DNA sequence: CTTGACTA
DNA sequence: TAGTCAAGG
């Protein structure tokens, strides 16, 4: 698994090549478009000057599951307040700003009723993980503790508020989505307010995002937990136009393919149908209603409603986003005074950004000054 | 995840 | 300079 990352070989890769060896449809793990689409590795620098709409929940959740101590516990200050999300957001955003990338965070709004089942499933998985985590801790199996700890992450309201506070202090705008955050992020790319949407999930593509950036981060190599091997995890881009071109599908058909594979709104998908069969069936039959072999199952799925979720999503009304300056005092007060971050580290990191921004404005003055 | 100190 | 690894809070 995961040998399909770039670093050696061709710049453009087809995940499809390694699909047969790596992929099994065991349980729902998010919309699985990966085997059907081409991703292009990109450098962070290629996004310089661009606005990127970032799925906030997706990103914060990622931080909560990866930024942990040696026994799998979250990072916390002396008062027991979780700081993993703030650490991740702070350093990640500084790196983006150093690259002159303009992040806009998009926060999820109200959840669609059809998603409740999937959320419930994830909640149960977390409860199981908590049990396994405690078990592993008691028995001193630290590698297991770390593994299960990652799966216990819960994003709380206060984490959301704190994240917004930090973003504001950094001069980074955020958008409150009326419904699905992915839908709102996709919308921003359609209106031109954003160049791309950034998320680990492929949903943005079904929501019609022009571009999806995955693995939006600075680091290149990442250690495989437990083993002494490394994999390349570099940012990669999926272009909506390319997806349609290469699959030969319309956007509406792509949504149908997604529904066959399984989305958050029908997580079990259709039995016996994986990405490859799904695309074949839609190409041959045009649309869900015409696929004879799924007639029975289709009657049980609110497919028209799911289509509408993707094709006619509820999106934010005003899509103007305003970028601000870094408010050094506020960042230092919030992170260091309130959350007990090291003042030296935070100040040093802010200095690094300031240097980068100053040198950029100086190089501009050479041309225009 | 990201940094920063340390080693080869 | 690149690679490794512990620590961050």
UniProtKB/TrEMBL annotation:
It holds the Pfam family XPG_I. Keywords: DNA damage, DNA repair, DNA replication, Endonuclease, Exonuclease, Hydrolase, Magnesium, Metal-binding, Nuclease. Mg(2+) 2 binds at residues 201, 203, 264. It is an enzyme of class 3 (hydrolase). Mg(2+) 1 binds at residues 55, 108, 182. Binds 2 magnesium ions per subunit. They probably participate in the reaction catalyzed by the enzyme. May bind an additional third magnesium ion after substrate binding. Residues 49-324 form the 5'-3' exonuclease domain. GO terms for biological process: DNA repair; DNA replication, removal of RNA primer. HAMAP family: Fen. Interacts with PCNA. PCNA stimulates the nuclease activity without altering cleavage specificity. Belongs to the XPG/RAD2 endonuclease family. FEN1 subfamily. PANTHER family: FLAP ENDONUCLEASE 1, FLAP ENDONUCLEASE FAMILY MEMBER. This is Flap endonuclease 1. The lineage of its organism: Archaea, Nitrososphaerota, Nitrososphaeria, Nitrososphaerales, Nitrososphaeraceae. The gene is fen.
